[in-house]
């Protein structure tokens, strides 16, 4: 599935900052106080891979994209929102 930046903005998964940078929203999912990760046209293929890995679920793909960029697993409490069959790909992102 190929997603565009516009798709992410339309679904409130991303926002544009004052300097026109696009950010994926990931409030407090990894470390309390974190809120977003930059996405660019160059990193959009990484996001699209996350979409494929999450079977088209854009919200989960946003978390996976951020996890891979941060090299961190989501906080343990976030796993209750992630289907168990996807836990291994989130665990592979790094320490949690």
Give a quick rundown of the structure.
By secondary structure, this protein is of the alpha+beta class. The protein is built from 4 helices and 3 strands, in the order H-E-E-E-H-H-H. It has one domain.
Helix-strand blueprint:
Layout: H1 5-10, E1 14-16, E2 22-25, E3 36-39, H2 44-53, H3 58-70, H4 87-91
Antiparallel strand pairs: 1-2, 2-3
Helix pairs in contact: 2-3
Question: What does it look like?
Answer:
Strands 1-2-3 form a 3-stranded antiparallel beta sheet. The protein is α+β, with helices and mostly antiparallel strands. Strand 1 (14-16) and strand 2 form a beta hairpin. The protein has 4 helices and 3 strands. The relative contact order is 0.17. The model has no long low-confidence stretch (mean pLDDT 91). The chain has one domain (5-91). The chain has helices spanning 5-10, 44-53, 58-70, 87-91, and strands spanning 14-16, 22-25, 36-39. The termini are far apart.
